[in-house]
User: Fold this.
Amino acid sequence: MASRSKAVNSQNQARSSGTSNVRAQNTESMSKAIAQYTLDARLHAVFEQSGESGKSFDYSQSIRTPTQSIHERDITAYLSKIQRGGHIQPFGCMITADEATFGVIAYSENARDMLGLTPQSVPSLEKPEILTIGTDVRTLFTPSSAVLLEKAFGAREITLLNPVWIHSKNSGKPFYAILHRIDVGIVIDLEPARTEDPALSIAGAVQSQKLAVRAISHVQSLPGGDIKLLCDTVVESVRELTGYDRVMVYKFHEDEHGEVLAESKRADLEPYIGLHYPATDIPQASRFLFKQNRVRMIVDCHASLVPVIQDEGLMQPLCLVGSTLRAPHGCHTQYMANMGSIASLVMAVIINGNEEEAVGGRNSMKLWGLVVCHHTSARCIPFPLRYACEFLMQAFGLQLNMELQLAAQMSEKHVLRTQTLLCDMLLRDSPTGIITQSPSIMDLVKCDGAALYYQGKYYPLGVTPTEAQIKDIVEWLLAFHGDSTGLSTDSLAEAGYPGAATLGDAVCGMAVAYITKRDFLFWFRSHTAKEVKWGGAKHHPEDKDDGQRMHPRSSFKAFLEVVKSRSLAWENAEMDAIHSLQLILRDSFRDAEASNSKEVVHAQLGDHELQGMDELSSVAREMVRLIETATAPIFAVDVNGCINGWNAKVAELTGLSIEEAMGKSLIHDLVYKESKEKVEELVYRALKGEEDKNVEIKMRTFGTEHSNDPVFLVVNACSSRGYTNTIVGVCFVGQDVTGQKVVMDKFIHIQGDYKAIVHSPNPLIPPIFASDDNTGCSEWNTAMEKLTGWTREEIIGKMLVGEVFGSCCQLKVPDALTKFMIVLHNAIGGQDTEKFSFSFFDRHGKYVQVLLTANKRVNMEGDIIGAFCFLQIASPELQQALQVQRQPEKKSFSKMKELAYICQEIKNPLSGIRFTNSLLESTNLTEDQKQFLETSAACEKQMFKIIKDVDLDKIENGLLVLEKEDFLLGSVINAVVSQVMILLRERNLQLIRDIPEEIKTLSVFGDQVRTQQVMAEFLLSMVRYAPSPDGWVEILVRPSLRKVSDGTLLHTEFRMVCPGEGLPPELVQDMFHSSRWMTQEGLGLSMCRKILKLMDGDVQYIRESERCYFSIVLELPIRHRAPKSVVD
Assistant:
């Protein structure tokens, strides 16, 4: 129900629908706004013609006058007056300078006096005036102030540095400098600052943030689901912050008129709560300006305005849209004076608009309303306090947006529930049941009456037209709107219905849905004045005031005049509900049996519907394919919490195949105990339609390849709906954060030196930055440099809110800065935040999406001294892109691919070797052959184990799980020796063995394959670097026993010895000291040393005058009694 009726004008709310969609609704909203501009401009022209005082301006009459044509010249003049008025308020002064040269191109007439630049009483011909067109603006202020101005002029987002604290060079007076860019230069608004302002104890921006966060915390602590409570709390908070006599929340309705929803005021003032106002009270041009400059202060509406002097070379008057000092329009100041308000502060409340309105991928912003402050005397609050209010408004907008979404969801649930019950009635009873039973169609949307016109019979409910009148309406609909599927209007008179006058005030608005060409559903609304109530005790029908003067009461009465023949507008959500019911009823009525009073509805599919089902099936199959092959882990459960969906990625991560996963309980079988309660809550909420995002869960793994190590996923829980739109389960879309989780947990719980971890070159260390207690950046690690493109030297000392994130790292939407500010200040206040969704643009304009964790930072005494922030890259693909963006790392990535290929392909021939060994074991073998086969099997096991270790994170971080079993030490020694024999022969080296025979048959308990891997690596290194030819390598074993409480340990020293200089120095460096290995051999030695430490062993490399050797010490429990010679 979207296309506008031909019979209505620009003010009309009639909509005749063939299609109903968001884009059409948005187009209509834009048409209203454009039409409102014309009306605003006409009012402005009438006011301008009424003389300087505006005394002859009859506001109420102007509102009621039908729209007249107005020349485009007048509209241009009106907009120019609003945006380029050429005057400022006298509570500050203004200078505009050229951005490149710092030369003054405009200044306010009071700037010289305010800055102390007025010439002496006796003019001096030798000393020209300091401030004039062309003056270097830096020369007007102290040297330190000039430096701050230069810094601000060079900033990418100059407004994020506001306010800049500067001093006049002549007088030394302090000023808040509030800067913004315009088409011809940079405007500097200068507001005198009192030295006793608390905001001056530290940077003004930081103080304003702290003021805002306190108020924001109060707002965020409110229970959800109560917009009235939210608005009441905001007006109280703003009044407490600012001290104004009256603070109101003013909401714009869909038809552009306004309403006071909440109010906090001085006890003796007349209340305005509940008042409605015509759309012209807040002109569209002003609304546009509020989206650009969200806080607007008028200090004294009686004050004389100050003209702006500008360079004659400028093509047009200076644009003052973004100026904090911009003078108010005369029409507005008269309005303020009439209502006894001398000063005001007005703040925009911005929420997210429809996705269809978004431009260039950016979310659209909608002006939901205003927070309006009035004072009965002149009042000026400093910029930092106004800045705090702006932050509070952004938080209010965010909270309000969530509440509106929640309300929309609740409304949708109510509509769905009502539709379900109505459909059930249709299936069980005659169609008239939706009128005669409860719930009825009146429960679907807010209305005063409803009716069913079915097979020539009329079934009314509530306040409705008579049967004769409804038949007349039906004939009018068929004649003028017969080609549509329905119509909605808030004024039947303006929609062109000839009999509207006979209906009176009782029926003004109507929504109608066509079921068939002769069957209709109607909803009716009475006139708006019935819904509008005066909110204060002083309201009385006999109360009078001067209707010609612009005053809230006059506006209210003018509004009632405008809407007395109009109902409340039909909201888009209401029309969608009606349209949905219409579709259901059309299908039901089409197959109803007219001859039977108790009609049975048969659901039959036509050819086009079958085709639609085929299309849906095709889409569903494609969706299933995309989910199954997605690179993100995705799984789903039914209403009982049992797995009914399990894609390839989650199978890979957990080691549990799709077939094995199906039917298992997610809560009892697949997640760790510590995650059970969290997952239960996720499932419970999602089954109610409440979806959660970015929740971390700990999942079990299965199979030998995963060593039972947990997998950490950050998941979004989504409600799964069936074809009837009922919830049939929950779908989880996740992200694997296991590697980062390990490092993050270690970091968060460490109590020692932060810097050692922050600046570690370990690639597993996430991007980290830190804040001092004033939100200045105190740490910025290597990973942050890589992620953002900004070096540590460039960032340290800058303000994280505004300078770092805002100017250096630009944000996509303004509200993102407010959210980040809240998270940071909460951490500094001791309240940690985990996995906050955050995004910004890096130095090169690349969009970066991360999850932010902010933790308090404490000193040795336990005092909070700032915050530590960790960034978790939002996707593995993005993390990989960041790792390979530099050319050397691309080469490394290529090597990783090669390694992954080798590890995969080598498994096949190894399987063949294993099978061949198994065949040989079943044949008659000599003892020597059996030993050879055993050694071969041990080497093959070692190779499989190494292939599984391609991800070295577990070894690096000490998380490798050892697989312990009983084994013969002799078997390990044989396998180790076999791995060096070929190289010994190639290099013509002799192997000397000094190994007690008794030890070879000793059974010990430990990880055989890891022990074998470590010994082989150290022995091979000695073989590689022993002098050749005619050199030698010795393996020497020295065992001893050590009694412990629960048994006996075999303490063994293994020595791998060779003559000469031995290993190159860089190899030893790689093994013992480097975090970034330089050689493959060094990596192998380093990993083996770490594996040995996991087995509670140790290794040393010793170089003597004529030889060198590895000394490896390892203790293993003995399972059987040791031979006597070992004990000796």
Remarks:
- DSSP finds 37 helices and 39 strands in the chain.
